[in-house]
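#lab-general

N.A. 3:47 PM
ok so I finally got the sequence cleaned up, no stray characters, all 172 residues accounted for. can someone with queue access submit it? mine expired

B.Y. 3:52 PM
send it over

N.A. 3:53 PM
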Amino acid sequence: MVMAVESALEKENKIIIGVASLEVSNDPETVLVTYALGSCLGIAVYDPVVRVGGLAHVMLPDSEIENRGTAINNPAKYINTGVPLLYKKMYDLGAQKQRIRNAVVGGAQVVDDNNYFNIGKRNFTALRKMYWKNNVLIHKKHVGGRVNRTVRLQVSTGKITLKIGSGEILEL
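B.Y. 4:20 PM
back already:
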């Protein structure tokens, strides 16, 4: 059994998505991973027909809160610029909007004990508004609370697994 797990991990092409970045893939051996989602959102998208997956790790709701150059140089930092880019890259690999399954993870309240900034909540609200305006459903979510999360998306199957701060592992 241990050899089978090690063998599977050797074949796995893990792409790590850092903070304020995104990746898409149609390689069935690829697993997209992002770590330590606190108030940030992990947005996982998957088209099961063409087996294309994408994962974004966005930090802030709107690029208008900082200078304009930041959004141009790093659109994945913001929901209003990163999410459209994620979908464009999915479409470039053959995904179609009506088939894409959407999952959202993160949006926690991990730093701001006074609930003054509410970045996690603001991130999720901005994403919901964008999805609503574009007629996009959120199929799965694990948001809020006060825990960090790690997200893994297997491109071959669309399976999403979460590791929650304490070490608990869930499948979305």
